[in-house]
Design a protein that fits this description.
Elements: H1 9-20, E1 41-46, E2 53-58, H2 65-80, E3 161-163, H3 166-177, E4 188-191, E5 195-196, E6 223-225, E7 230-236, E8 247-251, E9 254-265, E10 274-278, E11 281-294, E12 296-298, E13 301-305, E14 308-310, E15 313-314, E16 317-321, E17 331-333, E18 336-340, E19 343-345, E20 348-351, E21 358-359, E22 363-365, E23 368-372, E24 374-377, E25 380-385, E26 392-394, E27 397-400, E28 403-410, E29 413-414, E30 424-426, E31 429-432, E32 443-448, E33 473-476, E34 483-487, E35 490-494, H4 499-510, E36 517-520, E37 526-533, E38 540-546, E39 561-563, E40 568-575, E41 586-589, E42 595-598, E43 604-606, E44 615-617, E45 623-626, E46 629-632, E47 636-638, E48 642-654, E49 657-664, E50 668-669, E51 672-674, E52 684-690, E53 699-701, E54 706-709, H5 714-729, E55 738-749, E56 755-768, E57 776-779, E58 783-795, E59 798-805, E60 809-810, E61 813-816, E62 825-829, E63 835-837, E64 842-845, H6 850-862, E65 875-885, E66 891-904, E67 912-915, E68 919-930, E69 935-941, E70 945-946, E71 949-952, E72 961-965, E73 971-973, E74 978-981, ...
Parallel strand pairs: 3-4, 4-6, 5-7, 6-9, 7-9, 8-10, 9-11, 10-13, 11-14, 11-15, 11-16, 12-17, 13-18, 14-19, 15-20, 16-21, 17-22, 18-23, 19-24, 20-25, 22-26, 23-27, 24-28, 25-28, 25-29, 26-30, 27-31, 28-32, 32-33, 37-45, 48-56, 58-66, 68-76
Antiparallel strand pairs: 1-2, 33-34, 34-35, 36-37, 37-39, 38-40, 40-44, 41-46, 42-43, 42-45, 47-51, 48-49, 50-54, 52-55, 53-54, 55-56, 57-61, 58-59, 60-64, 62-65, 63-64, 65-66, 67-71, 68-69, 70-74, 72-75, 73-74, 75-76, 77-78, 79-80, 81-82, 83-84, 85-86
């Protein structure tokens, strides 16, 4: 816990009150009228939550009585002042030096007055033990929230948790922030419908704090798929709240396909979607509504670290400012307030409607208020950015510390671009910090929708004079086809290509896979495109062109480009023949070799080639085209250069007597063409060979070029024999034999022996569909045992009831033979009222079974006449579970035994308490004897009286009784109920004081003080807080038996002025009391002593003397020197004499005093022991002190 500095406790207490939302009650104690009491100022706060008192004590330096009055008046002023105006945080305040007014407390700290007999002035801190400060415990934020009790789904990617309602969202938020799960790391969620949060007055985000006072939120770490739905009516209205949004903090999370619409009014790290993102990916998300706050705020995310933003759109108003304390910088952005080490691509901010706006103090950017080591690509901003209150405004980025901003378009306006208070503003970047950002490498391909907007610098404070055409900084025209580039203060219109080509070149220059490409629409303006990659191919050319688009350009390996999804794409390809060779080599497109393949390899499509048009429909993904050209021999060619045959043997029926079938690819014909066609001799012949040139019997070819497979070939029969042999060794396994053989079919011309060959592949496999029947079934257990325990808690006459049941037990069946094909079984329970079994063999018993209810009902009827009797109902029953195979109806049985018992933990509670007396009476008599002017006083007090409490019923288990007295100043009661009356009660002292004032007017008058008071003693049971009361009546009377002196001569009140004798003193004063005679204080080399006018001096005695108008008790040693510090009198009582030279050195302490860091209490009553230390007892104000007089906290 952070240490509270001096004079800051008041601020801390009020900040606590504001946090907890409790009502304060402040009281300031006035200055005591006794000269010996220091001045105390108390601040007390009534904590309504737990009923405890929070109290802070502020020390004030000792001063004269007039100074004390000023302090009391100013303390009263502080009590009446408004505490609500004090918004300054306690840690930002500094303590003020002495003598300077401290605005936290409203009083002047003055130096202590200079006084003799010592020049040394030292501050003395005095207070009561109630100076302890009690800090209220932090409070959980999530109490009383209505939410779902579970989420549907398994949380896997295949079966994600389903979010169906606002209560599901609240459960998600609660579990994350209360650490019920580790942020759902690795878990998946899906939104199944549009969800309204209108039932939440102020939303507590997903990924937030657990309790008030937490310093870090608990982030969401899972995967949340909005599934194209939206969450709306989001409301956050706590302007002190950080980490504000639908999500508060996310770490390692993925959030995608989600629209959020709401109103967020918070402090910092605030946005519609998420207050803070760390190492997370936000993809295809839309934010609507409005965000208000200070510090770091954004439309999608407030502050981001190491995160990725893809295809996000913000239309929400983002309205921010600077923290009033000046502790936070302000960053506001349409997508993100501030981003560090992050990636932002293909994001849009559109605040063009009348409701939306984007402004703040500090740094404002259409995409981000601030970026550091962050890449911003393909961004688009429309609407007004910034206002007159901003320091730096950028159309895309407010402040750029490092990173890259490329391929951005700004179609909005810069607010307050002519404001005199604005520091810098830029069309694209408001302020570039440092010297590491360069044109081309970091800033390139940036455009506005008008050349006129370049009246404002593109990059605020830097780089404008260095912009050249190669940096691609410029403006596009209203048709979005034409554009110009900026250089040396002017524009050069570009006529060699369209604007979409310029943007696509920027994407290719960026070179990132997850950045969108650009293609032309039918009118030539840029739309999203998908990259068509065409590698160079051997012996041919390949290119594509969008059909019926006048603005499209041909794409080939040297000129990459993109096309819009769904467009018709024409494909052009032709061979590149080697006519210089001898003989010349000619090439042709290999049939079925023209493909497009998606870059993620998830899809592939053949492009039909032939005499007609070659075309395909552009998919919504980046693709690569491929084609293969083959060489033709100069004599004979085949229509195909590759054949494939599939041969399958199918085995069915019993495994031991299989039926055999075949499935073979039909024979395939090869057609040979003689080149040239005019050749005179077109005779040819065919043959087959293995790939190594040897003969083979697997492939057959006839004189017409018809190729077939021989299933009796040795290679095939050897594979079959090996499979059957293996199955005989391992009968449980099916035959899975497979093999591939290769060969060639060659055609040879009779003239010239020109050849052409086709490669033949034979794929052979055996499909084994044979089956093995079931012969029996067994269970792993013959008997199961379950316990059902009924537990009773609370009041025995009205107990709460709960049941615990042995967890379900799994039975495992074993079907024989082990390799039987159909091992399916069914399960059944013998007594469905007693137990249940599912189709997985999971057996469970029912706590609500009828036989258990019968046992309980029988016991209740038996105990009807004795409601306090303990419950013991119990018993046992048996049943069974059966498993049956579907193949053959084979069965096995398991016995199930269930035992039931009752555990009675109930308590017989107290229902009534009574006392043996309804009223007790006490007498306090003050007996005065001797001389009326100097009487002897003694008090007679009634003996303590015992109260006894009776608790019913007699069976009650907790009969403890606590005692209390309404007015503790009148009487006290022990833990055993012994009542005693307090002789020195304040009401008696008040009667005596009034009587003394009357006697002071007539010193010979009789004392007549008397009166009666009453209070209530209450006995309260510990169990149930039942109470009974007894009235305590106390009567006080004075019996004055003094005698009037015979003459009024002035001898005074005993004791020698010269000291010597006993050191005891009477409550009436000393031998040389005030008014008797005057003397002088004298200091020598040994110490201080007092000289009477007659030359004598007191020694070994107490003396009451006046100094500077203040009368105090002092004690002098046997040599007549004034004593200080601890002093033990002859009667054994201990006193403390002021040791500090502040003008009152040597005075006797009374009341509470802090000495050497410990609190002590000295008698304040003038009863002959005034000033004596209280030890091992309770002080008049109710505190306990130990055997050394130290306060026991």
């Amino acid at each position: 816990m952070r240490k509270i500095r001096k004079k800051q406790a008041v601020v801390t207490a009020w900040m606590l009150i504001a946090t907890l939302g409790i009502s304060p009650m402040v009281s300031v104690a006035g200055v005591s009228t006794d000269a010996e009491n220091d001045h105390m100022v108390y601040t007390e706060v009534n904590n309504q939550k737990n009923g405890k008192m929070v109290q802070e004590s502020l020390d004030i330096e000792n001063a004269s009585p007039s100074d004390a009055k000023v302090g009391a008046d100013e303390s009263e002023n502080r009590e009446n002042s408004s505490l609500g105006d004090d918004t300054e945080h306690e840690e930002t305040r500094e303590d003020k030096k002495d003598g300077i007014e401290n605005p936290e407390y409203g009083f002047q700290a003055e130096s202590a007055a200079k006084a003799t007999p010592s020049e040394a002035i030292q501050e003395v801190q005095e207070a009561t033990p109630s100076n302890a400060v009690m800090i209220a415990q932090s409070t959980n934020l999530w109490g009383g929230m209505e939410m779902s009790d579970h989420l549907d789904g398994e949380g896997t990617k295949a079966s994600p948790y389903q979010i169906n309602s606002s209560k599901d969202l609240k459960l998600l938020a609660y579990n994350v922030s209360n650490e019920e799960v580790d942020g759902y790391a690795g878990c998946y969620f899906i939104l199944t419908r549009d969800v309204s949060l209108s039932d939440s007055a102020s939303w507590l985000p997903i990924g937030y704090f657990t309790e008030i006072g937490d310093t870090e939120p608990h982030p969401f770490k899972g995967n949340f798929d909005g599934n194209g739905y939206r969450i709306y009516n989001l409301k956050i209205s706590d302007t002190t709240q950080s980490y504000a949004g639908l999500f508060g903090s996310v770490h390692g999370a993925v959030i995608e396909n989600l629209t959020v619409d709401g109103q967020v009014n918070a402090d910092s790290k605030a946005a519609v979607l998420a207050g803070e993102a760390n190492d997370s990916e936000i993809r295809n998300c839309i934010s609507k509504g409005q965000v208000r706050g200070v510090g770091v705020i954004g439309g999608i995310v407030g502050e981001a670290y190491d995160s990725v933003f893809l295809e996000c759109t913000n239309t929400a108003g983002v309205l921010g400012g600077t923290d009033a304390s000046g502790n936070q910088e302000a960053f506001a952005g349409g997508i993100c307030g501030s981003a560090q080490s992050s990636f932002i691509s293909d994001c849009t901010n559109d605040t063009t409607d009348s409701y939306s706006a984007l402004y703040s103090e500090g740094y404002v950017g259409g995409i981000a208020g601030n970026i550091y080591e962050t890449e911003v690509y393909n961004s688009y901003v429309e609407g007004k950015v910034g206002s007159t209150s901003a320091d730096y405004i950028g159309g895309l980025v407010g402040r750029m510390q490092s990173g890259q901003v490329k391929n951005g378009r700004f179609a909005g306006t810069i607010g307050a671009s002519t404001s005199a208070t604005l520091k810098t503003a830029g069309l694209f970047v408001g302020y570039i910090e440092g010297g590491t950002v360069e044109l081309g490498d970091d800033l390139a391909y940036l455009y506005t929708d008008s050349e006129d907007k370049y009246s404002l610098h593109p990059f605020g404070n830097k780089l404008t004079p260095q912009i050249r055409l190669e940096h691609h900084i410029g403006a596009y025209y209203s048709n979005q086809r034409d554009y110009s580039l900026y250089q040396l203060g002017g524009f050069t219109k570009q006529t060699n290509r369209y604007f979409y080509e310029e943007l696509e070149e920027g994407v290719l220059e960026i070179g990132k896979e997850n950045v969108h490409h650009y293609a032309p629409s039918k009118t030539g303006d840029p739309v999203r495109g998908y990259l068509v990659n065409i590698p160079a191919i051997d012996h041919g050319t390949l290119s594509v062109l969008e059909s019926q688009n006048n603005f499209a350009k041909e794409i080939d390996w040297a000129n990459p480009g993109a096309l819009a999804a769904g467009t018709k794409v024409l494909v052009y390809t032709s061979p590149v023949n080697d006519t210089e060779a001898e003989p010349p080599v000619y090439y042709e497109l290999e049939p079925d070799s023209l493909f497009w393949t998606a870059d993620d390899f998830a899809s592939k499509e053949l492009i039909q080639s032939g005499a007609g048009e070659m075309a395909f429909s552009m998919p919504d993904k980046n693709i690569t085209l491929s084609a293969t050209y083959r060489a033709m021999t100069n004599g004979v060619i085949l229509d195909r250069n590759e054949l494939t045959f599939d041969v399958e043997q199918i085995r069915s029926g019993s495994r031991w007597n299989s039926q055999i079938g075949w499935k073979v690819t039909d024979p395939q014909k090869l057609t040979a063409t003689i080149i040239p066609d005019s050749a005179a001799n077109k005779n040819i012949y065919w043959n087959v060979k293995d790939t190594d040139g040897s003969s083979t019997d697997v492939i057959l070819v006839d004189e017409n070029g018809v190729v077939s497979v021989n299933t009796s070939a040795k290679w095939i029969q050897d594979l079959i024999k090996a499979g059957v042999t293996n199955q005989e060794l391992y009968p449980s396994k099916k035959i899975t034999t497979e093999g591939t053989g290769y060969g060639t079919v060659t055609v040879t011309t009779e003239a010239g022996q020109k050849r052409a060959s086709a490669f033949v592949t034979v794929n052979f496999k055996i499909t084994d569909d044979t089956v093995v029947p079931v012969s029996g079934v067994e269970l792993d257990q013959a008997e199961l045992a379950f316990d059902v325990t009924r537990t009773l808690e609370g009041d025995r006459r009205n107990p709460s009831e709960s049941y615990s049941v042995t967890p379900s037990k799994r039975l495992y069946e074993t079907v024989s033979p082990e390799y039987a094909d159909n091992k399916e079984v069914t399960w059944a329970a013998g007594d469905m009222d007693m137990l249940r079994v599912d189709q997985e063999g999971m057996v469970s018993v029912r706590a609500d079974a009828r036989w258990i209810a019968d046992l309980i009902r029988t016991e209740e009827e038996a105990n009807r006449e004795n409601p306090y009797h303990q419950r013991e109902a119990g018993g046992s029953r048996s049943s069974y579970v059966t498993v049956t195979t579907k193949d053959g109806d084979k069965q096995a049985v398991c016995a199930v035994n269930v035992s039931f018992r009752t555990v009675d933990n109930t308590v017989v509670h107290v229902e009534h308490v009574s006392l043996n007396q309804s009223e007790v009476k006490f007498m306090v008599e003050k007996l005065m004897t001797g001389s009326r002017t100097n009487p002897k006083v003694e008090y007679k007090v009634s003996q303590p009286q015992q109260l006894a409490a009776t608790v019913t019923p007699g069976e009650a288990q907790n009969k403890k009784v606590g005692w209390s007295v309404a007015d503790s100043s009148m009487a006290a009661i022990s833990e055993e109920g012994l009542v005693t009356v307090k002789r020195d009660a304040k009401w008696i002292q008040d009667l005596e004081a009034a009587d003394a004032a009357n006697v002071a007017k007539n010193r010979y008058a009789l004392s007549t003080a008397s009166g009666t008071r009453d209070t209530i003693v209450t006995a309260t049971t510990e169990d149930g807080q039942k109470t009974a009361s007894c009235k305590v009546v106390v009567e006080f009377k004075t019996t004055d038996q003094t005698t009037k002196p015979s003459s009024p001569s002035g001898g005074g009140g005993g004791g020698s002025s010269s000291g010597g004798g006993s050191s005891s003193r009477s409550s009436a004063g000393s031998a040389n009391g005030p008014g008797k005679e005057k003397g002088d204080w004298i200091q020598d080399t040994v110490g201080w002593w007092y000289k009477n006018q007659d030359g004598t001096y007191p020694k070994s005695c107490w003396q009451q003397l006046s100094y500077n108008g203040i009368t105090e008790w002092y004690h002098f040693d046997e040599k007549g020197y004034m004593q200080t510090g601890w002093y033990t009198d002859t009667d054994g009582k201990v006193y403390f004499l002021h040791p500090i030279g502040d003008g009152t050195r040597g005075r006797m302490y009374t009341g509470w005093n802090l000495i050497d860091g410990k609190w002590y209490y000295f008698n304040t009553i003038s009863d002959g022991t005034r000033g004596a230390l209280f030890v091992n007892c309770e002080t008049p104000d109710g505190y306990r002190v130990d055997a050394y007089g130290c306060w026991i906290p």
